Amino acid sequence: MKIMVIGGGGREHAIIKKLRENKTVEKIFCLPGNGGIALDAECVPIGSTDIPAIVDFAAKTGIDYAVVAQDDPLILGCVDELNKIGVPCFGPDKKAAIIEGSKVFSKNFMKKYNIPTAEYEVFEDAKSALEYVKACKIPTVVKADGPALGKGALVCMTRDEAIEAVREIMEDKKFGASGDKIVVEEFMTGPEVSVLAFTDGETVIPMVPSTDHKRAHDGDEGLNTGGMGTIAPSPYYTKDAEKAALEKIIYPTVRAMKAEGRPFKGCLYFGLMITPEGPKVVEYNCRFGDPETQVVLPLLKSDLLDIMLATTNGNLKDVPVEFSDGAACCVILASSGYPEKYEKGFEITIPDELSDKVYVAGAKKENGRLVTSGGRVLGVVGTGHDLPEAVKTAYSYAERVSFENAYYRKDIGKKALEALKEG
Ligand code: AMP
Ligand code: GLY
Questions:
Q1: Which residue, judged by its Cα, is nearest atom 4 of ligand 2?
Q2: Number of Cβ within a 10 Å radius of residue 365
């Protein structure tokens, strides 16, 4: 089979490494990929949102199956366009991808189907939004309706911050048309757990739960980032939390999407907060998480391509999906200064024996050398029998991968391990 993966980060690298385990895979293309992914797939310089060029490439190359891994192309309808020329895809169509594409849709959807989430109000004009935040309970959270590169949710600890957030999104149009509408929601507390689930629209198979570390610095200090590290399984997802999440959130969501005439096929991401009243949805994503995928897929014992094809073909219930009992930890090596200003162009050294443990996100090939080209440069993943072992292994690898200017958090998994000890 000739496969095409759309995207170009650490998540796509993890997906590609796993797909390569399937013997029927002849060739994998990645659009656009990156310098590190180029070691495992043929990278093609087509942007992940250039849908006409993606469709054209698939037709000319005789692609048998496409894995649309990134949110933007899914929300724009990449799957619909590829299906029109007869290319089957992993990932939801445009109608189903709206679960991530519009916060207003997802909040109204959860309300309609009684799926636990933060209380909220929707606003379509700045004046009424400002009036509301001048009197609402603080802290509060202001969210742009549409996609905003993961930066569209502003947690406001003071009233001034909330007023500023509404102004930035609705008046200054910081996220363009994505901020034409906003959601202002109740501030929730509790640890966060990401549950990714395979689904063919009917059958749902949750993967190992994981926890991301979004802040830039140790102790959850500093700015929000695209994710500085992950652990799986997440100790916060206790048996009770799992039971409640499955019964009140995960199964009802997939059933309700079908009932809405928007059956979801692919990987549905449940961003949960384990609040004192139980798990509630923080957000849905219509794709694998990044860097959650980097810890979840190394624990998958079954064949990824077989599972993906089953989500497309609607026979997920017939395919084995098994995870190991072990644990995994991903530590992201970033460029010093990320998520603000940072320098690029430094050579990356990865010892040969670690090449399978490294998932590259922001690097390019330059004169035969791999050099940094982004803020989050790569993730190193350690696995083990349990979380302490996985964390220790990941850090021992992190010390051996190097580039000038590298920065990583030293406490990935620390809080969760403490919670585990406390029981
Ligand atoms: P989102 O883009 O919706 O995932 O939000 C980004 C981050 O903001 C989440 O991972 C949470 O840490 C935080 N967040 C979002 N919504 C809420 C909420 N209602 N209460 C508390 N924190 C939130
Ligand atoms: N790790 C957060 C996300 O993938 O959206």
A1: 289
A2: 15
Model-level pTM? Answer: 0.97
* Position 47 in a domain: yes
Per-residue pLDDT reduced to its tens digit, 268-316: 999 999 999 999 999 999 999 999 999 999 999 999 999 999 999 999 9
Residue ranges lining ligand 2, Cβ < 6 Å: 150, 212, 227, 285, 289-290, 292
| Atom number of ligand 2 nearest to Cα 292 | 1
Q: Do 385 and 326 touch, CB atoms closer than 8 A?
A: yes
Q: Is 1 in the pocket of ligand 1 (CB under 6 A)?
A: no
pLDDT in tens, 314-373: 999 999 999 999 999 999 999 999 999 999 999 999 999 999 999 999 999 999 999 999
Residues 176 and 245 in one domain: no
For the CA of 227, the closest atom of ligand 2 is 1
- The answer to whether residues 235 and 417 touch, using CB atoms and an 8 Å cutoff, is yes
Q: Which atom of ligand 2 is nearest to the CA of 212?
A: 1
pLDDT tens per residue, range 147-164 = 998 889 999 999 999 999
**How many Å apart are CA 19 and CA 306, to the nearest integer?**
9
Examine the domain organization and report whether 331 and 402 are in the same domain.
Answer: yes
Q: Would you state the structure tokens that stand for residue 396, as one six-digit string?
A: 């021992």
Would the CB of 420 count as within 6 Å of ligand 1?
Answer: no
Spatial distance between the Cα atoms of 274 and 241, rounded to a whole number of angstroms: 7
Pocket test for ligand 2, best of 290, 295, 376 (most atoms within 8 A of CB): 290
Domain range for 9: 2-91
CA angle 335, 232, 296 (to 5 degrees): 80
In this structure, is residue 295 part of a structural domain?
yes
The three-state (H, E, C) secondary structure of 210-234, written as one string: EEECCEEEHHHEEEECCCCEEEECC
Task: Tell me phi and psi for residue 374, to 5 degrees.
Answer: -150, 180
Distance 152 CA to ligand 2 centre (A): 13
Judge if 245 and 310 occupy the same domain. yes
Residue nearest atom 5 in ligand 2 by C-alpha distance: 289
CA of 214 relative to ligand 2 center, distance in Å: 9
User: How many structural domains are present in the chain?
Assistant: 4
